[in-house]
Automatic annotation (TrEMBL):
Organism listed in the record: Chelatococcus sambhunathii
Region (Disordered) residue spans: 1-22
Gene3D superfamilies: 1.10.238.260, Aldolase class I
Family affiliation: Belongs to the alpha-IPM synthase/homocitrate synthase family.
UniProt KW keywords: Transferase
EC number(s) stated in the UniProt entry for this protein: 2.3.3.14
Enzyme class: transferase
Descriptive protein name: Homocitrate synthase
Pfam families: HCS_D2 (PF22617), HMGL-like (PF00682)
Source superkingdom: Bacteria
């Protein structure tokens, strides 16, 4: 429970301290947003150069620490967008993705990005089928590419993707090599096919922390709906960076949602990612518009129905004390509360909605209006709109 301007912002479980005992949260958690790279890799999404620039500015206003702006090798437009973003004077650091190739690294360096995200698959199934590399060849290529990126003046974020299906001995050897060579600034755990559990991510972070002090980033996919939980599990064991996307867009079922992960860390775990969370809805709507991916109405945090209430019992409690129905105030994330009238509404709901709309009616007619509302909702299988409510109230309204 926190206060802003002496207003209670949330009311969560009293069991937090006991349940989270033993957590190893780092002192600071930073957001490395990859909406412009992995987000765009969702089938059917195309961001233009201007889309990318506009979203980058929005992410910067949000307070994101780092923006993974794209893959310069993928297209000229992507490269130009990264160049413009990197030269825009944003507070956020700008990184770009490169495969384990010198020409890819050269392209990243030319964009003006501060870091190359070297993406090289580490699991046997990926290495054999994509790179045809054995363990020794993989370690050799990793050394050569990280050294070359450093020579080009870039920070290096190494992404041994499909980490969650890798062999632990090879992962340990890779980290030990990075310790010796001093060529890597961060290592990203990648749950490429979204097959990990929170316990697996936590285990990997603990094992990696035994071998290296290099900061760890968590990048999870949502194939089992666990991306946010997995990301938090990594942070809970000491990972310092979270790789997330606005609205959770990304390959297949998407990535860990920026807004869900950051809000949960702040409210449920007391870990601040340095974001202005009141801008969540604003940034979400921009990405929704530019990506063409319409959010489900009940999407957590930023969905249009995330703070809509219809049930009569729920609304009756909400009117007396909002925390009977909500864990945090909608304004915290740029939302507004809404009372929806329909089949499940009660008299208190109707009274509150009419007052909100500035319509006065005698209290004795409220049950009759409620009956009409329920009948209308059943007939149309939809909630009653404000305009239709005015019609249903009709002559019952009291003249001012």
């Amino acid at each position: 429970m926190q206060n802003r301007d002496n207003k209670k912002l949330w009311e969560t479980s009293p069991f937090s301290d006991e349940a989270h005992h033993g957590s190893r949260f780092p002192q600071m958690v930073r957001v490395a947003d990859c909406t412009l790279r992995d987000g765009e890799q969702q089938a059917g999404i195309v961001f233009t150069k201007q889309d990318k620039v506009d979203i980058a500015h929005a992410l910067d206003r949000l307070g994101v620490y780092e923006i993974e702006a794209g893959t310069p090798a993928s297209s000229d437009e992507d490269r130009q967008a990264i160049e413009e973003i990197a030269g825009a004077g944003l507070k956020a650091k700008i990184s770009a993705l490169a495969r384990g190739r010198r020409d890819d690294i050269d392209l990243v360096a030319k964009t003006g990005a501060y870091a190359a995200r070297l993406s090289m698959p580490i699991s046997a199934i990926q290495r054999v089928n994509k790179l045809k590399l054995g363990d020794e060849e993989y370690l050799k290529l990793a050394r050569e590419m990280t050294e070359y990126a450093k020579e080009r003046g870039l920070a290096v974020i190494f992404s041994p993707y499909d980490t969650t299906r890798s062999e632990l001995p090879l992962l340990r050897r890779l980290l030990e090599q990075f310790n010796r060579d001093k060529t890597v600034d961060r290592v990203r755990i990648v749950d490429t096919t979204g097959c990990a559990t929170p316990q697996i991510i936590g285990f990997l972070v603990r094992e990696m922390k035994k071998v290296t002090d290099i900061p760890i980033e968590i990048h999870c996919h949502d194939d089992f709906g666990l991306a946010v939980a997995n990301t938090i599990a990594g942070v809970q064991q000491g990972a310092e960076y979270i790789s997330v996307t606005v609205n959770g867009i990304g390959e297949r079922s998407g990535n860990a949602s920026l807004e869900e992960t950051a809000l949960a860390l702040k409210v449920l775990y007391g870990v601040d990612c340095g974001l202005d969370m009141s801008k969540f809805v604003e940034v979400s709507r921009l990405v929704e518009e530019r990506s063409g991916i319409t959010l489900q109405a009940h999407k957590a945090v930023v969905g249009r129905g995330a703070f809509s209430h219809e049930s009569g019992m729920v609304v009756a409690g909400l009117l007396k004390e909002p925390f009977t129905a909500e864990s945090y105030v909608p304004e915290l994330v740029g939302q507004k509360r809404d009372v929806v009238l329909g089949k499940k509404s009660g008299v208190a709901s109707v009274d509150a909605k009419l007052k909100q709309m500035g319509i006065a009616v005698p209290s004795e007619v409220l049950p009759d209006i409620l009956k009409k509302i329920k009948e209308e909702a059943v007939r149309t299988k939809r909630p009653v709109s404000d305009s239709r409510l005015r019609e249903l109230v009709g002559a019952s309204a009291v003249s001012p």
